[in-house]
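Annex B. Sample input.
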Amino acid sequence: MYLRSSHINKYFLKEMSSESNAYLCCMARIMSIDYGTKRVGIAVTDPGQIIATSLDTIHASKVIEYLKAYFAKEEVEALVVGDPIPVGADRGKMAKLSDNFVKSLQKAFPDLPIHRFDERFTSRMASQVIAMSGMGKIKRQDKSLVDKISATIILQDYMQYKK
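Annex B, continued. Sample output.
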């Protein structure tokens, strides 16, 4: 069985066994969300779930509408939402807001699995990545870039954990 170039983004080749023929299997993307009260960073895997890529930063009030439009175009198998676990024992204000956000996602997309994943220090790591990238000062100060890269770090960590 051969892959046509039009199938490369949606399918991957997998061997069932040495005796059987190869077959095509469809895989869906995994999307991660770095939730903030103003901005939401979004990252997504490729269809083969190998590479995490920054997708977008959108206003928090438009997340559900954005996701509905994206899901109409692309198949997503799961959402990973950054969980702002505090260093201390008590869940803070941001954690409670994040919990409410996850509830709104569950209501809007009841059939989609939603996983929480530790997002501690991802914004700091994203800022360090941007600083080391050699970008100009104005680009480095773009907070939406930090949110997108934070979502990508969350997704990369989740994919590594899943292995």
